[in-house]
Amino acid sequence: MASRAESTDTGERRDWRDVVRDAADLALLGILLTLAAAPLVTAAAAVGTASAAVHDWTRTGSWPPAGATLRRFGRSMLPSVPVSLLALAVAGLLAADLAALATGRVPGGPPALLVTALVAAGLAGYAGLVVVEVGGNGGGRWRTAARSAARACLDAPARWAALAGVTTLAGLLAALVTPVAVPILAGYTVAALYAVAGRRPVPAHPELP
Question: Per residue in 61-100, pLDDT tens?
Fold first, then answer.
């Protein structure tokens, strides 16, 4: 992946080539994220590693070296398996509830469907902030990130709502675009989460041991 540090360090104004380069870098990040998450149990490790890469990029203007990224992924793979399973279980239950309410298989009608959709969006926004906090942790320490994200959501409900909007929009786009574009969307989504959550300073956490 290319670096944007040179133009920012020298004070040169970024032009369309820098924008295209950043877009290509994020697309590549999304593709690599999707490939790493394909076994499902590695999904959390893949997302955390991608978030750590975006964290470095937004703070320094440069992407981390490939070797450092691979080491992050390897260190977080096994500890992140329970996170992957929990996230998949919650997502599956919410999807099943929404489908059942939308088709009328369970009682409740539109009010229950609306409440469930709002709960799902709120959880998605919270998960998005957890992903950002994990990036500040070097791609791991999900429990610490979950606690920090919970406090941040309570301290800034408007930002929580904005993150919920980002994740909900990403989910809708993923359902609408051609499947080959979904991995590209993944990289842009991580960057969008940082764009929203970055309105407040993200604490610099130490790397994983």
Answer: 889 998 999 999 999 899 899 999 999 999 999 888 888 8
Residue 201: phi, psi to the nearest 5? -65, 130
Please count the structural domains in the chain: 1
CA gap 177, 22 in Å, rounded: 21
pTM (predicted TM-score): 0.82
Residue 50 lies in a domain: yes
pLDDT of residue 12: 61
Evaluated on CA atoms 165, 158, 201, 86, the torsion sign reads: negative
Does some domain include residue 116?
yes
Q: What pLDDT score does 1 carry? A: 57
pLDDT in tens, 186-203: 999 999 999 998 744 334
State both tokens at 200. Answer: 């407040």
**CA nearest neighbour of 196 among 140, 124, 94:** 124
Tell me the residue range of the domain where 56 lies: 5-197
Residue 206 domain-assigned (yes or no) = no
Whether residue 96 contacts residue 89, with contact meaning beta carbons closer than 8 Å, is answered with no
- Residue 28 domain-assigned (yes or no): yes
